[in-house]
Specification:
This is NAD-dependent epimerase/dehydratase family protein. It holds the Pfam family Epimerase. There is one protein chain. The chain has two domains: 187 residues, Rossmann fold (3-Layer(aba) Sandwich); 106 residues, UDP-galactose 4-epimerase, domain 1, CATH 3.90.25. It is built from twelve helices and eleven strands. The strands form three sheets. The protein has a seven-stranded parallel sheet with strand order 3-2-1-4-5-6-10, with helices on both faces. Helix 1 packs across helix 7 and helix 3 runs parallel beside helix 5. The radius of gyration is 21 Å and the shape is globular.
Length: 329
């Protein structure tokens, strides 16, 4: 494969995917509405086709203009988008859909492709735009990929959990980096042993390319850090990259109530462990970036940005009330 069309391509996963594809010799075109800054605007190796991916006519025009070997769908949020794309790009050598670990419908450790059931999806959920139905919609997109494969289309999907790294506009990790960078005491919900699978964004990018090149039609592939860390270990990793020392203070629901905080208010916390098996992807030759290296890049990017995650977690005043009570115990 020589040419690639990235639907999306300017913000986070898509941006890193474009970099990865360029490094591996692809001619790359990005397709999006142009509502976000294009980091490749001055890069003559990357072409841009403007259009709304929810407009089938615009997608069909892009297919005829670019005639890509591989299509990477980074912004398919509704099942109908996947069904349309697999039809429009049916003649391509590979179509890869960015699904999600949230597509799984049963709590298992680990969650495995083809074994752990997916979320169901009603007609109402399929057209909803709320976060409550995100996993349902992604699961139905996976089923659309499988249906396309049954029609002879080389369609596949990749399921990442929480993605982190440079240019992460969700600021989920930035909240924690900011806390470790600015304070001596970091409040960690629960006992610190919570496990929620995460994945470095460049590893998602390489996974998408590898699945396009080596994956099997109709298959889904989990992608995630090959070494998992607890929430407290993640804080320690951040502190090591910042070359600082912090005191981790644990707080359960009763202590957090003093600051009117709940466990789930902390980004990256999840009451039940969320773990994906990545053996299937690794069997294709994919490898993950060492955690220290990945976190180092994430921290460096945070320090160079104006992101602090302050809108996405408990306020420090509320945390201080909890910390004050814990120190008197």
């Amino acid at each position: 494969m020589d040419t690639a069309l990235v639907i999306g391509g300017t913000r986070f996963i898509g941006r890193h995917l474009v970099d990865d594809l360029l490094e591996h010799g692809y001619d790359v075109t990005i397709f999006n509405r142009g509502t976000h800054d294009n980091p490749f605007e001055t890069d003559d190796r990357v072409s841009h086709v403007a259009g709304d991916r929810t407009n089938d006519s615009a997608l069909e025009a892009a297919a005829m203009t670019v005639d890509p070997d591989a299509v990477f769908d980074c912004v398919a949020y509704h099942p109908k988008d996947v069904r349309a794309a697999t039809r429009i790009f049916a003649d391509c050598e590979a179509y890869v859909y960015v699904s999600s670990g949230a597509a799984y419908g049963r709590e298992e450790i680990p969650k495995r492709e083809g074994e752990t059931p997916l979320e169901s999806c009603t007609a109402e959920q399929a057209t909803d735009d709320s976060s409550d139905t995100y996993g349902n919609r992604k699961a139905e997109g996976d089923r659309a990929v499988a249906a396309a494969a049954e029609q002879g289309i080389n369609a596949m999907s990749v399921r990442p959990p929480i993605v982190y790294g440079p240019h992460d506009y969700t600021e989920r990790l930035d909240w924690w980096i900011d806390r470790v960078n600015r304070f001596d005491r970091v409040l960690v919900p629960g006992d610190g042993t919570n496990v929620r699978h995460r994945v470095y964004v460049e590893d998602v990018a390489s996974a998408l390319r590898i699945v396009a090149e080596r994956g099997e039609a109709g298959e889904a592939y989990n992608v995630g850090d090959r070494r998992l860390t607890t929430l407290e270990e993640m804080v320690d990793l951040i502190a090591a990259q910042l070359d600082t020392d912090v005191k981790v203070v644990h707080a359960g629901p009763h202590e957090l109530a003093a600051g009117e905080i709940e466990l789930e208010d902390f980004r990256l916390y999840r009451s039940y462990p969320h773990v994906l098996s990545t053996a299937k992807l690794a069997a294709l030759g994919w490898e993950s970036t060492p955690l220290e290296e990945a976190m180092g890049r994430a921290v460096d990017d945070h320090l160079e940005s104006d992101r602090d995650g302050s809108e996405y977690g408990p306020e420090r005043d509320a945390e201080e009330r909890v910390l004050g009570i814990l120190e008197t115990l």
